[in-house]
């Protein structure tokens, strides 16, 4: 760290040279500029064109909320029963608590429909802002002092604002070699070009990142060295990988060296399910208090960010519900101010009704209640992850190896081959070929997805069709048998051609299916694969 860097440590540095032309040109909308005065007590405003709250037809909003401890904290006492049991006992009355928000506040600072349903701040309603700010401080513990939070309408819209704010047409965006297609769909029409960075068992590789930046050849690439990195560090979509703090530090340091902004899209932060342990070796986990729970999670890039070069996007989509269309940015105030201007020029502000509901939920549960909810949620998804991997382990013959592809970490890799059908009949040569692994995966320690890497080289038509066509053929047969996996090519940030080298992938989600649904799907996968490998 240079002297200058040390002086700036903890307060952030000027990063305004990263702003796009569009963002620099965006002025504060004249009427919106007055809005910050609107909440001033006693103010008589004749300036705006606000509809009178008297004519809002909503007299109050009420809701029933699940209690924060709706889901158990350990898997042992109820084993996988808690999840199975819930599904089978819908008749069991859920424990709830209720809230009401009236049109006018009873006490100063109360949520009210008068202000929530009015034209309001692009940065979000003050009550929600306050909750989110405190939450970030306690949970993500940003490494510098001058950070800001800003409510947005989910990470999709958040990333759209990021693209408009810090990228110009013709620039490159560094992304993992497999990444969330929703992000690419936002960037590509602006002529933002994907620059894929290699991955390993922890997600984006710092070696590949350094190499890409160090060896950047502007004329060969036809664009300047990229200054923005998009990363999904936890429960990566689609690969399911999770980056630990050491890798994050390496990536952060490289970004400091090459002056790169890190966009951290982290919807799966609270779905850190922990390492997969095969059924026979599974033991119960201790229940953690809030601090131990936070300490047990892979931290955000925010925690190591001493310059303010991380734009973090959180969403309520996976922890509350996607229909809320609500989340928030944590970033340096210069970017936050520009995002606010961008929101003013698009949705004007996040939806007031949604903010009333989510703020009421969080005010009712309070910090400890929300933490309790998140801990319960983690266990629910852990059980789902375990069940899906258990189903694969039951359907296929599994071998474990330790993958050493990461630099600092190793991970257990599972290789699946077809189980011999008839154990007492001598295996034919063809059968032996089929006992070779047909796919492998690292059981994810976070998120919602298992990412299979396929090895279909022994398929009878492999030499004539090649990787991509064989994989697509298999995917189609599985779909026709009634099971939908996400084909790997969907997650490539660059066009996948028939002759693109390298094995293909399927992404299997465990987030939303019933236990029987998963079992059935994996059974169908096994049956189709068995037939597929014999078909000529
Ligand atoms: C990596 C990633 N980013 C963003 C989203 C969408 O988030 P939101 O619902 O907040 O728009 C998803 C949803 O699947 C995702 O996986």
From TrEMBL:
Molecular-function GO terms, alphabetical: pyridoxal phosphate binding; transaminase activity
Coiled coil: none
Cofactor(s) demanded: pyridoxal 5'-phosphate
SUPFAM superfamilies linked: PLP-dependent transferases
Family annotation (InterPro entries): Aminotransferase_I/II_large, Class-I_PLP-dep_aminotransf, PyrdxlP-dep_Trfase, PyrdxlP-dep_Trfase_major
PANTHER family: AMINOTRANSFERASE, AROMATIC AMINO ACID AMINOTRANSFERASE, HYPOTHETICAL (EUROFUNG)
Protein name: Pyridoxal phosphate-dependent transferase
Organism (species): Rhodocollybia butyracea
Native organism taxonomy: Eukaryota, Fungi, Dikarya, Basidiomycota, Agaricomycotina
């Amino acid at each position: 760290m240079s002297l200058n860097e040390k002086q700036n440590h903890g307060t952030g540095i000027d990063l305004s040279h990263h702003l796009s032309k569009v963002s620099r040109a965006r002025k504060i909308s004249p009427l919106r500029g007055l809005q910050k005065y609107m909440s001033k007590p006693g103010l008589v405003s004749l300036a705006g064109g606000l509809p009178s709250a008297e004519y809002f037809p909503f007299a109050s909003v009420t809701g029933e909320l699940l209690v924060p401890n709706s889901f158990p904290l350990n898997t042992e006492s109820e084993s996988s029963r808690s999840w199975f049991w819930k599904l089978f006992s819908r008749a069991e009355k859920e424990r709830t608590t209720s809230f009401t928000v009236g049109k006018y506040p009873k006490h100063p600072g109360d949520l009210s429909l008068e202000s929530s349903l009015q034209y309001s701040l692009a940065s979000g309603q003050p009550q929600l802002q306050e909750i989110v700010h405190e939450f970030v401080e306690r949970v993500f513990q940003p490494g510098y002092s001058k950070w800001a939070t800003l409510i947005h309408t989910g990470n999709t819209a958040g990333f759209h604002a990021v693209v408009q704010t810090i990228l110009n047409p013709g620039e490159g965006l560094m992304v993992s070699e497999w990444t969330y297609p929703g992000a690419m769909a936002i960037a590509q029409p602006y002529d933002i070009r994907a620059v894929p960075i290699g991955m390993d068992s922890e997600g984006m590789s710092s070696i590949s990142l350094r190499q890409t930046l160090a060896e950047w050849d502007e004329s060969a690439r036809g664009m300047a060295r990229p200054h923005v990195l998009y990363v999904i560090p936890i429960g990566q979509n689609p690969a399911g990988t999770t980056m630990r703090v050491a890798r994050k530090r390496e990536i952060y340091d490289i970004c400091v060296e090459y002056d790169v902004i890190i966009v951290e899209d982290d919807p799966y932060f609270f779905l850190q399910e922990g390492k997969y342990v095969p059924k026979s070796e599974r033991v119960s986990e201790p229940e953690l208090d809030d601090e131990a729970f936070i300490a047990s999670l892979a931290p955000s890039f925010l925690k190591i960010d001493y310059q303010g070069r991380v734009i973090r996007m959180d969403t309520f989509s996976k922890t509350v519900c996607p229909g809320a269309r609500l989340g928030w940015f944590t970033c340096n105030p210069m970017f936050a101010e520009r995002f606010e201007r961008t929101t003013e020029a698009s949705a004007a502000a996040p939806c007031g009704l949604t903010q009333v509901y989510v703020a009421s939920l969080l005010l009712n549960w309070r910090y400890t209640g929300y933490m309790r909810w998140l801990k319960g949620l983690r266990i629910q998804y852990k059980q789902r992850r375990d069940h899906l991997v258990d189903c694969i382990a039951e359907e296929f013959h599994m071998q474990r190896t330790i993958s050493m592809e990461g630099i600092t970490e190793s991970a257990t890799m599972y290789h699946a081959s077809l189980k011999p059908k008839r154990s007492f009949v001598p295996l034919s040569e063809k059968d032996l070929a089929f006992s070779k692994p047909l796919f492998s995966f690292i059981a994810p320690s976070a998120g919602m997805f298992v990412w299979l890497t396929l090895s279909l080289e022994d398929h009878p038509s492999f030499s004539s069709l090649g990787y991509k066509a064989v994989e697509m053929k298999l995917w189609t047969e599985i779909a026709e048998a009634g099971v939908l996996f996400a084909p790997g090519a969907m997650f490539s940030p660059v066009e996948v051609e028939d002759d693109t080298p390298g094995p293909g992938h399927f992404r299997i989600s465990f987030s939303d299916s019933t236990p029987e649904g998963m079992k059935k799907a994996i059974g169908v996968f096994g049956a189709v694969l068995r037939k597929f490998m014999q078909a000529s």
